[in-house]
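Example record

Each entry pairs one chain with its bound ligand, S-adenosylmethionine.
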Amino acid sequence: MVDTARHDAWSSGNSYELYMGRWSRRIADRFLDLVAARPGQDWVEVGCGTGALSSAILSRAAPARLTAVEPSAAFLTTARAAIADPRASFVAGDAQALPLADASADILTAGLVLNFIPDRARALAEMHRVLRPGGRLAVYVWDYPGGGVGFIRAFWTAAVALDPGAADLTETGRFPFCTPEGLTEMVSAAGFRDITVTAITDEARFPDFADFWRPFTLGAGPAPGYCATLPEDIRDRLRQRLAADLTPGSDGAITLPLRAWALQART
Ligand SMILES: C[S@@+](CC[C@H](N)C(=O)[O-])C[C@H]1O[C@@H](n2cnc3c(N)ncnc32)[C@H](O)[C@@H]1O
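Structure tokens for the complex follow.
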């Protein structure tokens, strides 16, 4: 079987920030506006990465506590260094076996994480266990099937044209369930109710092609992880192809769409 997750490199906080963190921070703010949580609640965040959503929760949602769980030691180091808030604790752990007590959270969130978890049913059962009765699940994922991360879609379109074997690695193929229907079915099967799914849309604006391309060379995330494995001449052909595919605006900037699905539900 092809291991389509083999390039999911979650190992360098700074590289991740350039590739995804700068966009995920913007989506996190929009997501919290949508959630409109009451102050003073106990939050759990799963897969906090470098802390994009964690810092937004702390600054916008007035939590009593935030327990953020993350398997990558490097990302935890980045998040801990960036966020010194007595309400927050950053814990090493996996969504499929959360190191947290039963019924200990009012709200459980995960930003851009659910699709990367190998056993999502198990992770959702864990999330249900950790939430208090009537507690809220509030998560979001990119709309991969709908091309909701324009820069990732542009990358794989060019990469697959040069290397058809890369087709198995695209997030569009790997995560077909990242649709309102797919997410609702998955979360409903885990016993959640009152499920709603809402689109969050935005744009990623790269001042120039160099700013678009550089994060793909830094190895953090599936597409950059794949890019890092390419011999230099192939990587250079890929860069040239992308430069030809993308049409900058009159100021040289490249603007591509972003769309995430935000799902909310109750235990
Ligand atoms: C795209 S990043 C999102 C990070 C952060 N939430 C954000 O919005 O920027 C995906 C994150 O999921 C984490 N992750 C992957 N597999 C996981 C698992 N089984 N349990 C918990 N987190 C996981 C990765 O380590 C990474 O931090």
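The longest strand covers residues 193-206.
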